[in-house]
Write a structure and sequence with these properties.
Length: 97
Amino acid sequence: MKELLIVLLDIAIGVALYFIPAIVASKRDHQNATAIGILNLLLGWTIIGWVGALVWAVSGPRGGDLVVCSECKEMIVRGAKVCKHCGARFDEVEAEA
Ligand SMILES: [Zn+2]
């Protein structure tokens, strides 16, 4: 019985470690958290896939740093002068909206 508990604990720790990239992406409110989670799930067993998912999770803006472009409604970084999607230009006042 004790051995079974140890095995279950090992599995739980292993699963937690395996999903670190997805957990980090979720905690950071990453804009691509779902895609990172899928990459983590499907390719996490390859070391490259796991490291790639982790790097992706810790890079890029947090979801809270994004605002909606008033022209094309895509997400852009708060304070951006030019929308990367539609090329619309903003002064600081418009970018806050
Ligand atoms: Zn735009």
